Amino acid sequence: MHSKIxxxxxxxxxxxxxxxxxxxxxxxxxxxxxxxxxxxxxxxxAAGIILSGGPNSVTEGDTPRAPLAVFEAGVPVLxxxxxxxxxxxxxxxxxxxxxxxxxxxxxxxxxxxxALLKDIHxxxxxxxxxxxxxxxxxxxxxxxxxxxxxxxxxxDNCPIAAMADEDRRFYAVxxxxxxxxxxxxxxxxxxxxxxxCGCQSDWNMPDYIAEAVAAIRAQVGSDxxxxxxxxxxxxxxxxxxxHRAIGDQLTCVFVDHGLLRQxxxxxxxxxxxxxxxxxxxxxxxxxxxxxxxxxxxxxxxxRKIIGREFxxxxxxxxxxxxxxxxxAQGTIYPDVIESAGKGKKGSHTIKSHHNVGGLxxxxxxxxxxxxxxxxxxxxxxxxxxxxxxxxxxYRHPFPGPGLGVRILGEVKKEFADLLRKADAIFIEExxxxxxxxxxxxxxxxxxxxxxxxxxxLPVKSVGVMGDGRTYDYVVALRAVQxxxxxxxxxxxLPHELLxxxxxxxxxxxxxxxxxxxxxxxxxxxxxxxx
Length: 530
Ligand SMILES: Nc1ncnc2c1ncn2[C@@H]1O[C@H](COP(=O)(O)OP(=O)(O)OP(=O)(O)O)[C@@H](O)[C@H]1O
Ligand SMILES: O=c1[nH]c(=O)c2[nH+]cn([C@@H]3O[C@H](COP(=O)(O)O)[C@@H](O)[C@H]3O)c2[nH]1
Ligand SMILES: NC(=O)CC[C@H](N)C(=O)O
Ligand SMILES: [Mg+2]
Hints:
GMP synthase (glutamine-hydrolyzing) activity, GMP Synthetase, Chain A, domain 3, GMP biosynthesis, alpha/beta, binds adenosine-5'-triphosphate, GMP synthase [glutamine-hydrolyzing]
């Protein structure tokens, strides 16, 4: 058994980054909602508990509090931001609605006398104070520490920026050590989980594979499993892992909804059936999906229809097998978190990702989701460890609803055909142009971006080609760089490259006469346009 850290989520947008940092330290962690029962905490067996930040204010009535069992479990507790505030309030300190709000970069004077921050700092002032460069995001602040606590860090705006009761091993910081902008964040989280909670670094891929394989075998027994295979990273890795566990008991179903990229179907079939020896059924459901999408323009409605039809196909295919009891999916941790946000107080649903939450109660298959605990880059490492080709594992993600969310408004076959061509040109150019062609190991623009694609805009604009007037559609190019797809920057592609892509699309794709480049970050935009 691994030692594990329990993270209680108070609704922060960056809670999953806490889990990320803990995993980076080689320690397993899970996020659960703040309102789990005392019973849950007692039985969980955490080596330590972290309380996340959150949008609420403890100064208002009826806002979230940590279960009391957290403070009675006898294990170290780290409160972050709201987590610090609720810890202070629950243990007898005071929190006030701050007059000065702090968002963004701050320098914190860190006192070196606690186990958490000892000898961790970014620089030392002439007066000899150790300073941390951190990221803050709060309006409230602790103005009176609970009995037993001592001051651990301060800023001018926030005199109690961190506090600790070392006898009980309770620590709290107002800043966010989980974000990369907090330079020593990794060191601080590492200090907490290793030195204070006593966890070993025992979360690694080879062990994980052996454990996951054993768990899948135990769970599935002699049943058959069907898996929705998209050719994307997540479902491919899930397929390889499950195949390793149960071999031919696994049947993959690859659904062509008519909204795939150019040559995608051919590629996926070749890769899996021919190279990996996995059973794959190719279902051409174009007519079914396109039929139901006719006349539908609302993005959420489109997503729901696509999700529903996926389930229809999976159900129909499983009925053809003799003993299919499980539906496997490449659901990964961020999918789970984003969907969990749906019922969560104070969190908004931005988009309905089709693979989680969209499954009906009537689904007569149990869910098998072996990647549920992993982040994308962990999934990639797992894929490599399972022997999948580099090119497949490092592909850009492609959303389940496919081109359906990249054709704005109503989806039509004519639009999908134009978009496929434009997208293929863009991707080809990204693959064959390099950031620094003279580098020892040149990196292509495809590898230098996290996701890139073309979007079809159903608006027509006037152009002139070969002295003739054109009145054709517009394609937008999107390329982003991101760590975790939660926030993203638009990629600064060279103008020459953009020019070349634009020329090629307009020349080669009849029906497109204008190309634009999307320069919006996430937030405020999202990566996909719908
Ligand atoms: N065309 C498809 N046929 C069958 N299943 C699909 C298809 N598209 C998506 N799915 C299912 O939906 C899940 C979610 O899709 P998602 O795009 O998040 O993951 P992925 O395609 O496996 O990986 P990536 O994020 O790299 O694209 C997939 O893991 C897969 O189980
Ligand atoms: O499997 C998926 N099903 C979906 O319904 C879906 N919607 C968006 N995405 C992908 O998620 C990442 C973040 O996308 P957004 O910024 O557009 O929300 C990006 O990588 C998107 O491509 C999806 N993946
Ligand atoms: N990021 C946070 O956890 C913020 C906590 C609280 N809502 C505040 O503004 O102080
Ligand atoms: Mg995908």
